[in-house]
Structure formats: C-alpha cells, structure tokens
Amino acid sequence: MIHVLFVCIHNSARSQMAETYLNHFGAGKFHAQSAGIEPGRLNPVVVEAMKNDGFDISGNATKSVDEMLESKQLFDYVITVCDEASAERCPVFPGPGKRLHWGFPDPSSFEGSHHEKLSRTIEVRNAIREKMQAFVNENAAV
C-alpha cells in the first residue's frame, strides 16, 4: 500500500479533492489522507462540485498537519497542492517519503456569482481528478 498525504492551507478544498480521487482511483494500492497548515471548514462550493461528480465529501473533517505529525504516521509521498509559497510552510515529515508539489488554484479565492465560482471550482476539480488518474497509472507497475 502506498501512503500519501495531501497538504494545502485549510484542508477545505484541493487536498480534500485529491484525497477523494486518489482513494477512488487507487483503491487497494493507495491510501490517501489530507491535512491543512491552518485547517478551516470544508468549502461548500467544493462539496457541491464533488457531489456533481458522484462523491459526497460533506461529512469529511478538516485535519491539521500537526495532527499528522503527532500521529507519527509514515508517508511514501507528502504532496502539497497549494501555491508554491504556502507549500514552503509545510513541515518536513519523518521517514524516507518523497515530497512533491502540484499547485492548483484555490477555490476559496474565486470571485463572482455562485455559478462562476462553481464553474471555476469544477475546472480545478477536473484537473485534480486527471492528476490523480495519471499518478495511479504511473505507479501501477510499482
């Protein structure tokens, strides 16, 4: 089993989507979790976008990277999905795992009508979904 931790600022959008898709596409091969540097609340537009794709994340809790460090879990990959500057704030996790950065736009920063925010969030969701499918495919032979 390949253990992956996705990290973003609030664990309210990008990392939650990445966790959901990797656990779906990599079922039986991957175990993904997510956490935030400053955990907040789930973004309701992200919850809606995920529901539109058949995934109900409304019951997910946001978690802190500090909780993950305290749990002493080892991860094969720690992947930041926020902007580069924020990714630098992510603590170093113990163990031999690889650290990767896959930046995606932050849905909480989107402005406009609900429809405009949802449309842009769906674009981010789709990009994350494609990245997770590719990551599973790249690691299929490992």
Mean pLDDT: 89
CATH domain fold name: Rossmann fold
H/E series: EHEHHEHEH
Number of domains: 1
- Largest beta-sheet details: 4 strands, parallel
The count of strands amounts to 4
| N-C termini distance | 10 Å
Nearest-angstrom radius of gyration? 14 Å
What is the CATH domain class?
Alpha Beta
What's the overall geometry?
globular
Strand content: 15-25%
**How does the helix and strand content classify structurally?**
alpha/beta
Low-confidence stretches: none
**Quaternary structure state of the chains depicted:** single chain
Provide the spatial order of strands within the biggest beta sheet.
2-1-3-4
The share of residues in helices is 40-55%
CATH architecture identity: 3-Layer(aba) Sandwich
